[in-house]
Amino acid sequence: MKRLISIFLTLCLLLGITACSAPQPSKEISSANGSNSELESDSTDSADSSADVEESTLTQPEGSAPQSNILIAYFTWAENTSVADPDSVDVDAITSASVLMPGNVGLLAQWIEEETGGDKFSIITEEPYSSDYDTCLNRAIEEHDDNARPAIQGNIENMGDYDIVFLGFPNWWYSCPMAILTFIEKYDLSGKTIIPFCSHGTGGFAASLRDIGNVLPDDCTVLEEFGAYRPEVAQSKDELLAWLAELDIAY
User: Per residue in 219-248, is it b (16+ CB within 10 Å) or e — as a string?
Assistant: First the structure.
């Protein structure tokens, strides 16, 4: 009897060992699920990476690959300020109309773009100017007297692809806005042809051409400038086109 009990216990022990050493299907499934989770995570990361690349492509500055050898870089008050109530602006006032889009210089730049097929670049300061004439003038005077270089936004890719640079600005305090000098010093304009254009009051270009010339590389060629009297900018297109036709440039 004891022998039978002993045999029975031995068989139970062997069966228990066999059961413990058998494969565990549930754990393998769990492990497989874990692997799938990691693959899904990798897949998500890959999707995010693709999205980042696509977004980067979409947010690259327009015109980063120039379509022309002509650049039209310009500063206009209208794009460097914010007008809370445009309807309140007296468009007939000499000192106020230029705060409305496209601005006096912006309009000149638009006509040059249409005629030459050049690429436009608006010079915009990081700190906007007031839309109030006197407040803006006071800042312009202070920046001029300090020989300041206001920080500007944006960047031009492949500046080296441009041979001709139209440079537009309003006459601010008997010179150009100091952001124009920031622009000139930011890029290598060596060997390029520079063509200034300006909107102005009765002072014309004043000292702006001298101030620009002082910071341009010595090997730049500066062609004849174009100036439009501020109250008559909107009527100056024919005069501007005649000026362009007389310039010794190909476009």
Answer: ebeebebbbbebeebeebbeebeebbeebe
